[in-house]
Amino acid sequence: MYQALYRKYRPKTFDDVVGQPQVTETLKRQVETGRLSHAYLFIGTRGTGKTTCAKILAKAVNCEHPDHGNPCGRCKACLGIEDGSVLDVVELDAASNNGVDNVRALRDEAVFTPASVRKRVYIVDEVHMLSMAAFNALLKILEEPPEHLMFILATTELQKVPATILSRCQRHSFRRLSPETVAARLLYVAEREGIPLTADGAALLGRLADGAMRDGLSLLDQCAGREGAIDTTAVLQAMGLGGNLRTLELLDAVRNGDTPGALEQFSALWRDGKDPATLLQELSTLLRDVLMTRVAPKSGAGLCTGGYAPDTLARLAEALPEETLLWQLRTIQDALGAMRSAPNPRTGAELCLVRLCEPRLAGGLPALESRVARLEQGGLPQAAPPRPDHQTASAERAAPSAAPAPEPKSASAPEPETDRPPWDETPPPPGDEDLPPWEEPAGEPAASAPPAGDAPEIEAPPAAPAALSGQGKWQEFLDLAQRELDPSLYVLLRDDYHCRGCLEGGELRLYPQNAFARGILEKASQTIAALAQRAAGGPVRVQFLEGAGPEQPASSLDALMKFGNVTFE
């Protein structure tokens, strides 16, 4: 009958154990000198060799012909312990024998001398699963055991073992195995078994094993059933990790702010049977690997899960700052927590992806930190689309000395937009009867009087007071900034608390009111200068000055917004 690889290649001696020299050398020396403890506690993650070393130690202390601390494997005691015929070596699972009655029965049997070997050995696996009453029943015999008795306890969760037990045991910590160690062992096993495992396939299996040799051998056993060489592609197909490439595509869409693309990727994965929570968890794992690669570039490969190529993680780490990665991870974790009780998990996942693609919709300080980090790195998101015509018109009517609104276009034949700046447009010729004088640009006299007749004469509105000199062009500049700049940058320009300014005489004078606003505006000075030239109709020089600066005229809506959230009915 076929035997699984992790059982067939379980080490028989301490020398066969790989990756744990700090434990095996100590145990060999103790067996060799006879300085053995009555109780051992083996600590470590799954698949690192705790139970294997416990069985080897049980054979070594009872071996008739030990070889430098290793069991010979040929004597009656070694063979009997290996096949389970020696009843004095007992292996217990604390997960299923965790009651106080089980420990009391063990304690009553332990006082009897062994029948066929020198020491009676109890191997208790997952000892942290014992109840508190069971631990208390174990205390006395651990404190004063008979000379023929030895306990070997193994656990993956040290914090759950009482301190009274810890103080009575000799502790040995088993390290998580490195991917290189696992890959080397897998290549050795594959050679012995005739499995065509390539070096890159073994390296990928070593990363996927996550520090556990047993997991690596199980993965190799799973891949061995495929035809042909077992390389990286074959491992990904056998493990069902082809979806990792689609997760990378989803993260690329999120990184580029491509909301439609991200939702299309999610919809395709949904149709293929991917659970929304599982999809977000995979995306969180990828972001975690990218974060580890960015904050620890030298040792990041050992910290990653191994499902993605190092060069791919390095590329993403260069494009995503730490603030963005932390905010995205927190957003996904919050969404996963909310999806546990959500009636429609798909909607929750889609809302999470929309927030990831457009941080301005998320709100909150972490989202603002993420957007500022992208501004500092130069990865500005795409400009927001211009507002509808009715909103633009209302905003221009509310602003003093604003530029005239464009004439309405025909709905049947819309005129295509042009890339020409506003100062290149040819103004209407004087004397045009279709343009009333009260809609002409401020500062130019009317070309002709309205036709005589019964219609009453309409006087032009009075000119803006001298105190507002330069504010008309400033308002035009703010209107352009609102339509074409990132919202977080526009807020700094329009808010008196952060910055004041004036556009007059070929100069844009900005008065940042704090260091935060100055730092962000100076980084975007070229973009600001280009918008100012369009608003002024000619070359503009940008200056950052100290001081309070001119007060900007606020609209009635701006005055209301100073009082917090205002609801209009």
Polypeptide structure, described:
This protein is of the alpha/beta class and 569 residues long. The chain folds into four domains: 5-173, 3-Layer(aba) Sandwich (Rossmann fold); 179-239, Helicase, Ruva Protein, domain 3 (Orthogonal Bundle), CATH 1.10.8.60; 243-377, Zinc Finger, Delta Prime, domain 3 (Up-down Bundle), CATH 1.20.272; 469-549, DnaA, N-terminal domain (GMP Synthetase, Chain A, domain 3, 2-Layer Sandwich). The protein is 48% helix and 8% strand. The protein has helices spanning 5-8, 21-33, 50-62, 76-83, 100-110, 132-143, 163-166, 179-193, 199-208, 213-223, 232-239, 243-255, 259-271, 276-295, 300-303, 310-319, 322-339, 345-357, 365-377, 389-398, 471-484, 487-494, 515-523, 525-536, 556-561, and strands at residues 39-43, 89-93, 120-125, 149-155, 170-173, 499-504, 507-512, 541-544. Strand 6 (499-504) and strand 7 form a beta hairpin. Helix 3 (50-62) packs antiparallel against helix 4. The longest helix is centred in the middle third of the chain and has 20 residues, at 276-295.
Give the name of the CATH superfamily of the largest domain: P-loop containing nucleotide triphosphate hydrolases
**Separation, N- and C-terminal Cα atoms:** 79 Å
The total of helices stands at 25
Give the neighbour order of strands across the main sheet: 2-3-4-1-5
Helix-strand makeup class = alpha/beta
Please bin the fraction of helical residues. 40-55%
Largest sheet: 5 strands, parallel
Secondary-structure arrangement, i.e. CATH architecture of the largest domain: 3-Layer(aba) Sandwich
Average predicted local confidence, pLDDT: 78
